[in-house]
Amino acid sequence: MSIDTAQKKMQEEVEKRRTFAIISHPDAGKTTLTEKLLLFGGAIRLAGTVKGRKASKHATSDWMEIEKQRGISVTSSVMQFDYEGHRVNILDTPGHQDFSEDTYRTLTAADSAVMLIDSAKGVEEQTKKLFQVCRKRGIPIFTFINKLDREGRNPFDLLEELEQVLGIRSYPMNWPIGSGKQFRGVYDRAQTQVELFQGDDHKEIQVQKVSGYQDDLVKEIAGEYYYDQLIQDLELLDVAGDAFDFDKVRGGELTPVFFGSAVNSFGVQTFLENFLKLAPAPTPRRSSEGEIDPSNQKFSGYIFKIQANMNPAHRDRIAFLRICSGKFERGMSVKHVRVGKDIKLAQPQQFLAQDRDIVEEAYPGDIIGLFDPGIFRIGDSLSQGGKVEFDELPTFSPELFSKVTVKNALKHKQFQKGVDQLTEEGTIQVFKTVGFEDMILGVVGQLQFEVFEHRMRAEYGVEVQLQRMNYQFARWLVEDKEKIDPGKFRINSQLVKDKKDNYVVLFESEYAMRSAIEKNPTAKFLETAP
Ligand code: G4P
């Protein structure tokens, strides 16, 4: 292939890709929506194929159960399908009890996010946390308000909540006509059409083109009562709502909002089609060599997640790599930049809805799974030619803390080895108390403690004892060395160090944190490592 043809092909492949993650609180309908998207894309044929994580709700201490769940999440970590000329990659963001730093890190591999909200519940806790991570990256966020077939909250209240709680402005792409049992469908503002929710089981979707919302046909469909309400709402949106602004959508300042019902497939296809039009193709990534454009011919990528093998007899792991530029080909040699060695990518895997497949070639925006005999760390960069190193992945502030000790002191060496490796994998964060060097683990999800305990036993032969601590927040302390004094952080707080010897303060409450911030005006308390 000539250079020009290769470049053209590369650009086409990049242009057609959309890589996104769905952010939501458990039960909002993420599994259902994912499944419907895969059905539209023809990636699965039957509903019920995508396994939810229902079981993990009960599997707090039963490792086999956790393992099974982790197994499922290996195969569904990335789901790929084609739709009308696009190649779509959905990144799975574990929720429920397997919510962990992995969930946050996965978001760094996405170019946009779909925020799924239950219309009866509004913005919930987990959504808020995930939203903040997306916000910091400035990626576009698309909102799907789900379960319109049930009694939900007033749509204006929901939009108000997006603005008040999350600080993002919104533009409703469509607007519900009635709700709950009286849900008639939606009015599509851009296409000026009514999409009807009808048929005996509401599975039939009919589209009626109209001249505008004043059209008599809308009145007929909505019925007098709902029509009056609809007109009032739409007029209010036209007058007082934000205008649609593509640049703001791309900048993550304005979220297009879609109303629908995932379980009834209602509004999902319209959502998908609009999303594909408005969401960005793979974007340039920052690196040691400046911004790396996806259409750059040289292959590069970074590892954002490492998953331990389900089978404890094998220590091998799978490292998930996001391709940032160039074409990936099976068997190619690339530089492992941190280690400074060339490695051959021989058995790369791609994750489809149900199976793992060996991947022959892949392009920017795609995620591939690399067999990892223990050579990769979270954030490692691989590149072809040159030493491209992508910006370090952020460390997320842990919220749960446990003091950890080894039961048998003679096993200290294995203990240290296990802790080091699991820290590299990003399974846990480790802190040490100043002076006594006691070890404290920090995580964002309870399951991370259980995984740590189990893997220390199964893979390193070490029994550990975890003792939960009352701390809820960790803040990295930036202050002149001579001013740092552990004595200042004795009440409801504690001064510790992270693995790079940065000072970190753990706080029991927001109040304790605020008062420390007030009492130390020259210090900075950062949410992530400096
Ligand atoms: P999650 O992955 O976000 O946790 O949510 P999931 O898709 O498992 O959906 C949670 C529950 O919400 C499921 O019901 C699902 O059927 C229901 N659901 C999803 N979309 C809609 C919708 O548009 N309308 C209504 N009314 N319900 C919806 P479940 O009873 O917990 O499970 P199941 O027995 O139905 O599978």
Describe the overall structure.
This protein is 28% helix and 29% strand. The strands form seven sheets. The protein has an eight-stranded antiparallel beta sheet. A seven-stranded mixed beta sheet has the order 2-3-1-4-5-11-6, sandwiched between helices. It is an alpha+beta fold and 530 residues long. Helix 10 (412-425) crosses helix 11 (446-460). The chain starts with a helix and ends with a strand. It is built from twelve helices and 31 strands. Strand 19 (349-351) and strand 20 (356-358) form a beta hairpin. The model is unreliable at 52-76 (pLDDT under 50). It folds into three domains: 20-71 and 111-278, Rossmann fold (3-Layer(aba) Sandwich), CATH 3.40.50.300; 285-383, Rossmann fold, CATH 3.40.50.300; 400-526, Alpha-Beta Plaits, CATH 3.30.70.3280. The structure holds guanosine-5',3'-tetraphosphate (G4P). Guanosine-5',3'-tetraphosphate is lined by residues 24, 26-32, 52, 146-147, 149-150, 261-264. GTP binds at residues 24-31, 92-96, 146-149. One of its GO terms (biological process) is regulation of translational termination. Belongs to the TRAFAC class translation factor GTPase superfamily. Classic translation factor GTPase family. PrfC subfamily.
Q: Describe the strand arrangement of the main beta sheet, using strand numbers.
A: 27-24-26-25-29-30-28-31
How would a textbook summarize the main sheet? Answer: 8 strands, antiparallel
List the ions, cofactors and other small molecules found in this model: guanosine-5',3'-tetraphosphate
CATH secondary-structure class of the largest domain: Alpha Beta
Beta content comes to 25-35%
CATH superfamily of the largest domain: P-loop containing nucleotide triphosphate hydrolases
CATH second-level architecture of the largest domain: 3-Layer(aba) Sandwich
**Number of domains in the coordinates?**
3
Structural class: alpha+beta
Shape: globular
Task: Average the pLDDT over all residues and give the rounded result.
Answer: 86
Q: Kindly report how far apart the N and C termini lie.
A: 46 Å
How many strand units? 31
User: Compute the gyration radius: what is it?
Assistant: 25 Å
CATH topology of the largest domain: Rossmann fold
- Regions with pLDDT < 50 over 5+ consecutive residues? 52-76
* Count, helices: 12
In which range does the helix fraction lie? Answer: 25-40%
